[in-house]
Amino acid sequence: MKSxxxxxxxxxxxxxxxxGQGEKRQRExxxxxxxxxxxxxxxRRAERSSRQFALMLVDGGQEFSPDRKHDLLxxxxxxxxxSMRGTDIVGWYKTDRAAGVxxxxxxxxxxxxxxxxTEARVCAALREAPPRFDLERIRITFHVFPEEWNLEDPxxxxxxxxxxxxxxxNGNGRIERALKRTMDIAGSLIAILLLSPLFLGIAILIxxxxxxxxxxxxxxxxxxxVPFTFLKFRSMYSKVDATIHENYVKQLIxxxxxxxxACGVYKLNNDPRVTRVGxxxxxxxxxEIPQFFNVLKGEMSLVGPxxxxxxxxxxxxxxxxxxxxxxxxxxxxxxxxxxxxxxxFDDMVRLDxxxxxxxxxxxxxxxxxxxxxxxxxxxxxx
Length: 382
Fold this sequence. Notes:
The chain has 382 residues and is of the alpha+beta class. It is built from 15 helices and 10 strands. The chain folds into 2 domains: 4-146, Reverse transcriptase/Diguanylate cyclase domain (Alpha-Beta Plaits), CATH 3.30.70.270; 173-376, no CATH class.
């Protein structure tokens, strides 16, 4: 139930005249759901245009008594409505706690300079607004999108503040998520037990045909940009140079590969680094089965988008990154059973996003049921 102060502030409107000219219009203080929807809309627009926008949050904190807090919120809301530009959007980011402003159209300004000037203007207005508060107790933060991901951060690269829709999803469907995790644990344990003779046989083949470790460990990027160690059976000679594959992947993502289906989306045709046993393992996808241990550890799921390499992620467009945010990476996925590797990169991303939007236990079971047929047909694999 909304409090009286929330109802009061949300009903406020101001008559504004953008840039001092043109037709006057009404600006209102949006409710939380409407404001967060606008944040998501601006983010989707920026993904395509690569034009940055900023989200400013003014957090009143929880240190004030209820009466003082309500006075502060009135002051903050009134100040933001009166002092922001006509193109800015004002509302509740978190009801009765934090107000937000979506800042767009920076023009010729450098982003840091524009945000510094905005913060100075807001602070000056708050100092003059009655009743006066100690601004050290008010927290003002800025979040810029598209953001630069800190891929060296072992915890989280993506700024969750800019993705309120993901926070909403993660707060819902707890039973379904628990069932999915249960299915992941049970499925991976059963697969490891049933395939244990195959594990042993493949390990012996690798040891006797080329020197080096049986397992290939590789840094991959998981959900929200968190890195993890990805396991595969080694299918290449030891100590090979990854430059040839890195260049190929960059060309593929840029759309400069004429026939990615010739030997799989991410796989080079006649790759000289691959061993004779490795070619068989890749064609049958048997090199992937150690990933059941990644599933047991919770780093992956049975079904989800393929986790990218670090140099692959660096070549992504901004909208490509959504495949890392909206679902946990998996061993198999919708794109594998909808043509496996015979789809172009953008089409693969669209299938991953479609899976994230439509995911359910029934869809996971359907994909798992279709996966053996795609694997044994060796369709689109090399």
